[in-house]
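User: Could you write out the 3D structure of this protein bound to adenosine-5'-diphosphate? I've included everything you need below.
Assistant: Certainly. Input first, then the structure.
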Amino acid sequence: MSKIQELSEQLANQIAAGEVVERPASVVKELVENAIDAGSTQIDINLEEAGLKKIQVIDNGEGIAADDVLNAFKRHATSKILTQDDLFRIKTLGFRGEALPSIASVSRFTLETSTGEEEGSYVYLEGGKVKEHKPHSLRKGTNITVADLFYNTPARLKYVKTLQTELSNIVDLLNRLAMSHPNIAFRLVHDGNQMLRTTGNGDLKQAIAGIYGVSTAKKMLAVAGEDLDFKVSGYVSLPELTRAGRQYISIIINGRYIRNFALNKAIIAGYGSKLMVGRYPIAVLQIEMDPLLVDVNVHPTKQEVRLSKEPELMHLIETSIKAVFEEQRLVPQVDTKD
Ligand code: ADP
Ligand code: MG
């Protein structure tokens, strides 16, 4: 036997899971992003024990055809890109084809899905192995249930923090996904308690009100700016409405919530000297650009991106926010629309 052996598919999936599936929130992120990519208008998330016992995501998206359903569990299998050219023009949240096989390899995984045009499918896997696969009747859409996450990777289970911390990570993530997609109705229920609900009527300010509260939303001003490459829109808080940390700044590029230090800095720069030291605004900025200008293939979780015209975008953000306060100075009036 040669010394160098190819890893079994199952082992390779578990290794990939180490990167993609860090904690319950990572599973929620991948499943909800798939539901968004499937064109859903309603996504329900049900959790038990902060997702460690159960994570269920129910969507009304396009579903998976019966003859495709097992392909979804193959590594690097995706319906979202095909060529290298596609990789530079990513319009979906997913494209790596890693999430389902990775999550399935570290849990008991149930998939029910239907395209609405033929009989649907039911698949049950344990530790990445298919245990059951049969036809199943279902309305158009997909239900995924991930039970007993990390049951077969005790080291990872140990690394998971308290249920409270894991739950707050999930709520934070869903808040940002909901603000990134105000046109989708999200509902999050944990152990029977509703934690989040958005209407999905497309209004970002209403989504913000649903998340940060109506009185906070009332103290946020609309931002809009545009140049040849970028379109910026969203809401920023009045300078007197601040927080002690940067985590209330949300930046969404082409529907994807991202973290970017330089763009955070540009938002803060837009406030000039209006913020007290150590205080940060609440801001939700949606930025639209040609996908060619943003490389999302930097990190497995795709939260870090590379921007090819970052200085130009920083300038646009800063000046758009400055313009809001300039207007506010001339016509001091808070937008009180809910
Ligand atoms: P990726 O999202 O990178 O393509 P995943 O492993 O997350 O990879 O999913 C594999 C494939 O399974 C997707 O490309 C998609 O075709 C299908 N899929 C997964 N979740 C859903 C869903 N909720 N609705 C419809 N199709 C889905
Ligand atoms: Mg995916």
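The longest strand covers residues 129-136.
User: Perfect, thank you.
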